[in-house]
Automatic annotation (TrEMBL):
It catalyses: 2',3'-cGAMP(in) + ATP + H2O = 2',3'-cGAMP(out) + ADP + phosphate + H(+); sphing-4-enine 1-phosphate(in) + ATP + H2O = sphing-4-enine 1-phosphate(out) + ADP + phosphate + H(+); 17beta-estradiol 17-O-(beta-D-glucuronate)(in) + ATP + H2O = 17beta-estradiol 17-O-(beta-D-glucuronate)(out) + ADP + phosphate + H(+); leukotriene C4(in) + ATP + H2O = leukotriene C4(out) + ADP + phosphate + H(+). It is found in: Endomembrane system. This is Multidrug resistance-associated protein 1. It comes from Oncorhynchus kisutch (Coho salmon). Residues 482-706, 1088-1320 form the ABC transporter domain.
């Protein structure tokens, strides 16, 4: 019976494959399997691929020369296959006619060409369908042509052998068609490896610098050829980076991940406990009411929000579910790799009679410190060393954790390195000891070692589970503009209520004033309206869009114009009106670039009043329905406050038709309010109009009679505010002059050797040498143990046994033990060295940062500092030591392998020079690109931190204005900008891996080939050792290239940390030999002579030509409009800014000759911005622990905080949140007063210290200052002129110069600037 192939004898021709010197496959196999495999592949893939293309339409590709060539070659292949079919029919017809007497032709000559021809037609049609669907390069078709070429190559070789050995059997026609077919297959494979042009109207064409991956061919993608270019010849710059692919951008990735994470939450069960309730601020369109512009009013409501409970046991794979296809593919390849890993040694066992060798495989394997401190306050109090010690203490606790991790890591390294050896030792011991006839030869030894070493490749991964809550809300409708019914609120659900039941109804368009003592709950009421507090009971609703002005102004790091417009549409006429109403026109004239001046983080280059007015202008410009104003007038001068109230908030202001809730301590504004709410301890005790409350004669009326000034006169005061035309006409200012912050810059070129030397010095030269010696000891012991094993396998067998096996086994075990000890010791030494280096570098960076002047912090974004103290420090902590271990291990492996190979098999040395050249060029390209990408990625990470920090600080303002989406988009944009450098660095890493693995596998092939060639002259043991190290050399060289590049890439962290060594520094904190007299200053005399200073070299003098003599014990008030130079003068007194001209003498000592701490610790300031730090209340009062608890309590009593602190659960140990946010602004200012009372120096400076407290508390503070600092010199910068009317003298500043200086009564008599300010305040 004839087979479908050829005839029955074909099934017995397998001896041609396995038992001949020149193996070949049978004709039967070639005509069936090798032809059907590519056909089967395409027919199986085609339906799935067709459905995929149908659902993923990328556009239409016009017919190109490449596509025409593919189509033409496909049809030619189809014709060639059908030529074979017709020729087979012709042969059969000749046989039927009796022309041939040979056996009947097998059906395979008809079936296979027919199947192949139909398959080629299918391939051609698929190529055209790909073009219609916008596929530039197809992996399916490339794989098809590759499989077809590989299968045809076997047949091609077989036909050549047959033509040489059996020329009489050659069929010329079939040979001719096959060679044409094979040539066309090669052409098709080449064409499939090329990429077509982009589809019409593709998204990629819109990018300025599109990523070449989009248009790369499939072969280029899997081999990462698309990243190869000439850019390594010069340092990479930001402009060289490609745009992210659309599927990798945050706007696509983040929503997808968010949805996946949200789906992990189970819906609440009907039987589950009642879900938690929270408050939500939600805007919606109201069914009635319109603004005057005709735009429907939005209704915003504070509603009950039910939060579903988080599922307790969240799946660890849940957050990664959207990556499931990639994990499945990766898992499949990993399984294949593991199978090949275990099959490899067994294949070597099969061919070991020929090679007598085996493979020898080897494999080598965050707490952040956020320095977000207000450095200005630390410098004013001379507290840098105290906080340096606090940060160092936190750092030491982190280093202790790292040290424990180092010990555990050393044990882990010891375990993984020694495990294969211990298994091998125990196995060899048992094998040779249980039976004397068991002989350990090269085949058993080296194949076993290859299998045992697989154990060292086991790794353990840890996934950190994260989750996210989903918030849902219901909605309702309210009638009043603002309504609170029986509202009870707290800052945290588990805390006690912060307020009693609050009931408020505020009609549309009314002006409501909220008054009360410090800590009475005024700001909390506004927070409740904004939904920032937990609503425990009742209901709250706010109709219309909301604008919010916080008590402490939140200013973005942007231009003044951008801060005011705040993402809204630019309306020039409205903008000009807002700027004029908020009294910003004179400031625009002062600022270097007008409204194009960049404002630093937290408004560092603006005064307190300027920041508050910019914050108010932002709210006014947004033109909302409801305005919540948290004491915006406290930080501005009296006449400016009067102007703002009249032009903005009052009955005739631009907001007259809006609903305004004004928290204020200014009594002069109350008569014009429609409704006054009086708050005491979180409860509204009185409400009504000004006349109604006075008529009731209650606590409010009594308070007014005690503290109110006489009525302000109606006649116009001399307004010093400029007109719009004067300032806005001055547009010719260069915007570049207004820049203040400096972006992080990336270095270029190779990392300097000095950086490596600095790191080595930080570790310690002795410890570095010890570590190198331990590395050498470990690898020498490893090399000698394998050499000893090769000698053991070469021992002669006497009477079926090896006589010296006990000695061999003992030495082998001792060498293994020495390896383990060396591994453990070098792991410990390198890790401890890394910790020592990290401690030194962190301490030096912290010291250098604290020694930097304030100008450094004004121009350096906080993200730059956070980046270095977090990510770069983490790299130094964790990554660099492990890279050093792997680099040293790889280097010693390479050296040891080369020595063994050159001694044992000199022939292998032929491949070492070409190998070295190849690896050199690979490393040159990779390191140059990867190093610079790391720098660019580090630089682009800082703006992400800066924006995130800024957004957190202004979260309540952003939510109030409904600008969350804009800030999210901005954050996503900065993250994408960072990923533009991070993504190519990952691709470059894979580029390196593919090339190193490819070259390495070529080396394996040549090593085996040379071993076979020299098998006659080598003993089996030496041959096994040589090829074993040849294979190890491949892995070691791969790791050496990768680790050397990773070392240079990550040492950039040390380079960036050391950058702060070269920044400008302040004067010395203390001089070695101080000439100060004991107890200085004793009198408190201040003599200012021709003093002037400027903030930056390229700016004009902020204060100039100030000459003042202040006697000891005098009380001097410093006044002037916002930006006149009042705070600048105090900064010069504390040498926060050094003088450009003139001198300041205190008790006859020139302060410029003193150390900064010697000066600042002997004078005291209560700063304009009351800043508290994270920590206990006592630490905020006395960080050096220099005072007793009795003294601290006394200071609290004098600052009127004793009752408040006594009521706290932890009293002095009460934990203050970052910035003191869990205390009101007034309470924070009282804490600053308590600091001053503790220090009790001869000179006290109050920089608008009582601006945020009510009049009664202000009166108590002034009384305390008069009694406790009676013999001290007091300089007070004040907006409330009534607080300084009884002072000895008043210094009036205007535009940075001294305008007036005399007693208050004399200045009023002169009717100058001070008289006008007093008149505006109702004092004259």
């Amino acid at each position: 019976t004839h087979s479908v192939c050829f005839h029955t004898r074909c099934s017995y021709d397998w001896n041609r494959t396995w038992h001949v010197g020149n193996p070949d496959l049978t004709q039967c196999f070639q005509n069936t399997v090798l032809v059907w495999v590519p056909c089967l592949y395409l027919w199986v893939c085609a339906p799935i691929y067709f459905l995929y293309l149908k659902s993923h339409d990328r556009g239409y590709i016009c017919m190109t020369h490449l596509n025409r060539a593919k189509t033409a070659v496909g049809f030619l292949l189809w014709i060639v296959c059908w030529a074979d079919v017709f020729y087979s029919f012709w042969e059969r017809s000749q046989h039927d006619s009796g022309a041939s007497s040979s056996s009947t032709q097998a059906p395979v000559y008809l079936v296979s060409p027919t199947m192949l021809g139909i398959t080629m037609l299918l391939a051609t049609l698929l190529t055209q369908y790909e073009r219609l669907k916008g596929v530039q390069s197809s992996g399916v078709m490339l794989n098809f042509w590759l499989v077809a070429v590989l299968c045809a190559t076997v047949t091609f070789r077989s036909k050549i052998i047959q033509a040489i050995n059996e020329p009489w059997t050659v069929c010329v026609f079939r040979y001719t068609t096959f060679y044409i077919y094979y040539t066309l297959l090669l052409i098709s494979l080449l064409l499939a490896a090329l990429s077509d042009q982009p589809p019409l109207f593709s998204e990629a064409s819109k990018d300025a610098n599109p990523c070449p991956e989009i248009g790369a061919s499939f072969l280029s993608r899997i081999s990462f050829w698309w990243i190869t270019g000439n850019r390594y010849k010069r340092p990479l710059e930001q402009k060289d980076l490609w745009c992210l692919n659309s599927e990798d951008r945050s706007q696509r990735v983040v929503p997808s991940n968010e949805n996946k994470l949200n789906n992990l939450l189970l819906p609440p069960s009907p039987l589950s406990p009642r879900p938690e309730e929270k408050t939500l601020y939600s805007p919606k369109k109201a069914p009635r009411g319109e603004r005057k512009e005709g735009v429907p009013v939005e209704e915003s409501e504070i509603l009950i929000m039910k939060t579903p409970r988080r599922r307790e046991n969240l799946s660890v794979l849940g957050p990664l579910s959207h990556l499931r296809p990639y994990f499945l593919i990766s898992s499949l390849y990993k399984i294949i790799q593991d199978i090949l890993m275990f099959v490899g040694p067994n294949i070597l066992r099969i061919i070991s009679p020929l090679l007598s060798t085996s493979m020898f495989l080897n494999m080598y394997r965050d707490v952040q410190i956020n320095l977000n401190l207000n450095l200005k306050v630390l410098k004013l109090y001379a507290w840098e060393l105290a906080f340096k010690d606090k940060v160092s203490a936190i750092r030491e606790s982190e280093l202790r954790v790292l040290k424990k991790a180092a010990y555990l890591g050393a044990i882990s390294t010891f375990t993984w390195v020694c495990a294969p050896f211990l298994v091998a030792l125990s196995t060899f011991t048992v094998y040779v000891m249980i039976d004397e006839r068991n002989v350990l030869d090269a085949q058993k030894a080296f194949v076993s070692l290859a299998l045992f070493n697989i154990l060292s490749m086991v790794q353990v991964g840890v996934l950190i589970r994260s989750g996210q809550q989903i918030n849902r809300s219901n909605q309702s409708i309210c009638s009043d503009s603002i309504s609170i019914e029986d509202g009870v609120f707290s800052w945290c659900r588990n805390d006690a209520p912060h307020s009693e039941e609050v009931f408020v109804r505020i009609p549309d368009g009314s002006l409501v004033a909220v008054v009360g003592h410090v800590g009475s709950g005024k700001s909390s009421l506004l927070s409740a309206l904004l939904g920032e507090m937990e609503k425990l009971e009742g209901s709250v609703s706010v109709k219309g869009s909301v604008a919010y002005v916080p008590q402490q102004a939140w200013i973005q790091n942007a231009t003044l114009k951008d801060n005011i417009v705040f993402g809204q549409e630019r309306k020039e006429s409205w903008y000009h009106r807002v700027v004029e109403a908020c009294a910003l026109l004179p400031d625009l004239e002062i600022l270097p670039a007008g409204d194009g001046t960049e404002i630093g983080e937290k408004g560092v280059n603006l005064s307190g009043g300027q920041k508050q007015r910019v914050s108010l202008a932002r709210a006014v410009y947004c033109d909302c329905a409801v305005y919540l104003l948290d004491d915006p007038l406290s930080a501005v001068d009296a006449h400016v406050g009067k102007h703002i109230f009249e032009k903005v908030v009052g009955p005739q202001g631009v907001l007259k038709d809006r609903t305004r809730v004004l928290v204020t301590h200014g009594l002069s504004f109350l008569p014009q309010a429609d409704l006054i709410l009086v708050m005491v301890e979180g409860e509204i005790t009185e409400r009504g109009s000004y006349l109604e409350l006075m008529a009731r004669d209650g606590a409010f009326a009594e308070f007014l009679r005690t503290y109110a000034n006489k009525e302000q006169e109606d006649d116009e005061s001399g307004d010093i505010l400029r007109t719009e035309g004067e300032v806005l006409g001055k547009k010719a200012k260069n915007a570049e002059v207004g820049r203040i912050t400096e972006a992080d810059k990336a270095n270029t070129g190779r990392v300097k050797l000095s950086v490596f030397w600095e790191y080595m010095k930080a570790i310690g030269v002795v410890l570095s040498c010890v570590s190198i010696f331990l590395f050498f000891s470990h690898h020498f012991a490893s090399l000698f143990s394998n050499y000893w094993l090769s000698l053991w396998t070469d021992d002669p067998v006497v009477n079926g046994t090896q006589p010296s096996r006990e000695m061999r086994l003992g030495v082998y075990g001792a060498l293994g033990a020495s390896q383990g000890i060396a591994v453990f010791c070098y792991s410990i030494s390198v890790s401890i060295g890394g910790i020592l280096a990290s401690r030194y570098l962190h301490q030096s960076m912290l010291y250098n940062v604290l020694r930097s002047p304030m100008s450094f912090f004004e121009r350096t974004p906080s993200g730059n500092l956070v980046n270095r103290f977090s990510k770069e420090t983490d790299t130094i902590d964790s990554i660099i030591p492990s890279i050093i271990k792997m680099f040293m291990g790889s280097m010693f492996n390479v050296v040891g392998s080369c020595v063994v190979i050159l001694i044992a098999t000199p022939l292998v040395a032929i491949i070492i020079p070409p190998l070295g050249i190849l690896y050199f060029f690979v490393q040159r390209f990779y390191v140059a690109s990867s190093r610079q990408l790391k720098r660019l990625e580090s630089v682009s990470r800082s703006p992400v931190y800066t924006h995130f920090n800024e957004t957190l600080l202004g979260a309540s303002v952003i939510r109030a204005f409904g600008e969350q989406e804009r800030f999210i988009r901005e954050s996503d944009g900065r993250v994408d900008h960072n990923q533009k450098a991070y993504y190519p660095s990952i691709v470059a890493n894979r580029w390196l891996a593919v090339r190193l693995e490819f070259v390495g596998n070529c080396i394996v092939m040549f090593a085996a080939l040379f071993a076979v060639m020299a098998r006659e002259s080598l003993s089996p043991g030496i041959m096994g050792l040589s090829i074993s190290y040849a294979l190890q050399l491949t892995a070691s060289l791969t790791w050496l290239v990768r680790m050397s590049s990773d070392l240079e890439t990550n040492i950039v962290a040390v380079e960036r940390v050391k950058e702060y060594e070269d920044t400008e520094k302040e004067a010395d904190w203390r001089h070695d030999q101080s000439s100060l007299p004991p107890g200085w200053p004793t009198a408190g005399n201040i003599d200012i002579r021709g003093f002037g200073l400027r903030y930056r070299e390229d700016q004009e003098l902020a204060v100039r030509n100030i000459t003042v003599a202040i006697h000891g014990g005098e009380k001097v008030g410093i006044v002037g409009r916002t930006g006149a130079g009042k705070s600048s003068l105090t900064l010069g007194l504390f040498r926060i800014i050094e003088a450009c001209e003139g001198e300041i003498h205190i008790d006859g000592v020139n302060i410029a000759t003193l150390g900064l701490h010697e000066l600042r610790s002997r004078i005291t300031i209560i700063p304009q911005d009351p800043v508290l730090f994270s920590g206990s209340l006592r630490m905020n009062l006395d960080p050096f622990d220099g005072y007793s608890d009795e003294e601290v309590w006394r200071a609290l009593e004098l600052s009127h905080l004793k009752s408040f602190v006594s009521g706290l659960p932890d009293k002095l140990n009460h934990e203050c949140s970052e910035g003191g946010e869990n205390l009101s602004l007034g309470q924070r200012q009282l804490v600053c007063l308590a600091r001053a009372l503790l220090r009790k120096t001869k000179i006290l400076v109050l920089d608008e210290a009582t601006a945020a407290v009510d009049l009664e508390t202000d009166n108590l503070i002034q009384s305390t200052i008069r009694t406790q600092f009676d013999d001290c010199t007091v300089l007070t910068i004040a907006h409330r002129l009534n607080t300084i009317m009884d002072y000895t003298r008043v210094l009036v500043l205007d535009k940075g110069e001294m305008a007036e200086f005399d007693s208050p009564s004399t200045l009023i008599t002169k009717r100058g600037i001070f008289y006008k300010m007093a008149k505006d305040s109702g004092l004259v």
